[in-house]
Design goal:
The structure holds two protein chains of two kinds. In chain A, 72% of the residues lie in helices and 1% in strands. By secondary structure, chain A is mainly alpha-helical. Chain A has a single domain, classed as Up-down Bundle (Sodium/glucose cotransporter). A two-stranded antiparallel ribbon of chain A has the order 1-2. In chain A, helix 4 (56-69) crosses helix 13 (274-310) and helix 8 (151-201) packs across helix 13 (274-310). Chain B is elongated and about 50 Å long. Chain B has one domain (12-77). By secondary structure, chain B is mainly alpha-helical. Chain B contains three helices and two strands; from the N terminus they run H-H-E-E-H. Helix content of chain B is 80%, strand content 5%. The chains are: A mainly alpha, B mainly alpha. Chain B: InterPro entries: Na_symporter_ssu. Chain B: It comes from Ekhidna lutea.
Chain lengths: 556, 83
Amino acid sequence: MDLATWTYLIVGITFVIYIVVAWLSKAGSTNEFYVAGGGIHPAVNGMATAADWMSAASFLSMAGLISFMGYGGAQYLMGWTGGYVLLALLLAPYLRKFGKFTVPDFIGERYYSSNARLIALICAIFISFTYVVGQMKGVGVAFARFLNVPFETGVLIGIGIVFFYAVLGGMKGITYTQVAQFCVLIFAFTVPAVFISIQMTNNPIPQLGFGGTLSDGTYLLEKLDQLSVDLGFAEYTAANPDNTVNLFFITAALMLGTAGLPHVIVRFFTVPKVKDARLSAGYALVFIAILYTTAPAIAAFARTNLIQTVKDAPYDDVPQWFSNWENTGLISYEDKNGDGKIQYLADETKNELTIDRDIIVLANPEIANLPDWVIALVVAGGLAAALSTAAGLLLVISTSISHDLLKKNIKPDISEKGELLAARISIAVAVTAAGLAGLHPPGFVAQVVALAFGLAASSFFPAIILGIFDMRMNKQGAISGMVIGLLFTTVYIIYFKPQLGGPGTPDGYWFGIAPEGIGTVGALINFIVSVVVSRITPKPPQEIRELTESIRYPRT
Amino acid sequence: MNNRKQYWKKNLRYLLILLSIWFIASFGAGIILAEELNSIRVGGFKLGFWFAQQGSIYVFIILIFAYVYLMNRLDKEFDVDEK
């Protein structure tokens, strides 16, 4: 069988599995639709959270980014895992005890204000929508590249699948499909890694092979440092002292953002008990860590492999995969000095090779000469990662509309049946809107994701933490904190992102902090403003103090 | 009620200790001290690099499970565990 047949077969099988699973777990009530009935086992929820969390970007792009950044890639590795410690210790158990459906629910009730709920609602929709457009685009790209289907058709197929199981099953359907998707994506990510680790370091565990020796007896990382220096790049493993402050702030912003993202937080409403919420965050991080500790190993293997293959190689002798990927435009060669050999150098004027970072994960199986079915598996894995994240985000959007906006603001007397129908309709509309936006993605999608993390870090994270840990926090404090934190972060990001039309240049960064890291400062500002304002305005009412007290104990 | 206050205080103490370790492993060993730690080698890894790309994640996992264990014990001790 050839690659195309394998790909159709494996992708087809996985899609059938998702549909069957979704059909078996239809939602019958709003409780099931919003939080899967609150009866999900912590390990199952951990798996669903992992799939929810790991997007097309984690699966396809992250290893590639790290491979070109070296040590600095740690900002993604630590930033996108460290937030789970904050979730498990500071947020998940208390929000579970609170026991409602959404993040705006918590903000609205704890701060006894429908304005606060509205601000939270708008943030939740904005964050989730920007994020989901990227996933839809990812689905289209995967189809286009591997199945020779036009990009638009790919997006439409993606919409169809998500539409089916999200509208039908709500959170319940999404949870169980996410479990299936997690299995597919983690298998697809680790299988090539294990093969490559064995080939290069003779160790089947990539995390150990990463620190192992090559066939010539030198350590892999030592070799990679040497190769990088030879080509004029910085040592792969060396820390860059000029970037320490920036790295610190970006890592912190990603951590705080992770802990403040609504589609991650709502997953902890689905487990039965407070102690399950803590445990579930632990499981989630274990499942996520399988990918996140493998990715840097893949990055180093692929980088070494790539350099060794292309370094001063005669262009006529390049391996088949090189020509394959040249056709897609992801890798290109320009013989500047006319010697017929490939010079891959840090010096832009002499460098002859341009490589798209996404190639690291996509071409890895080919570079390592793995069979076609492994390549097909990687395609299915990328699709699983994109679809599972998209579904989780779409649910947040629909819940925000049917529950927070309709039920809590506009029409409080709506019946259970009416609300469920509204939830189904709003998710249907959200899927379609996201798909359409994915068909014509604005050029700045990637930049907007930085904004999503910045907003989550500077709005939700402080407001929720203070709502749990500060008895004295009142609505005046929380609202002014959220508004000022949000405004500051948004203005800074737009100002310093030329793709968003901002005039700023990197020379103007405050303390050298890039827009990606400014959410940390926004969160600090939010904390300070909230605390100061709350101390000079009236105490929250007695029943709110009792509510805050009650969420601190698993049983009251 | 006094009991309750004590439960909360102990919880906060656990949080302080565990989050300090969280900070030291990631921002400390992985970022601020990475350059210094890179002069130490463990197998094929420079230590600072290892913390930044591997070790901190393992520490995060251990911290969450330690918290689960400590809090389950504390919940029982103060009789606030869910029946």
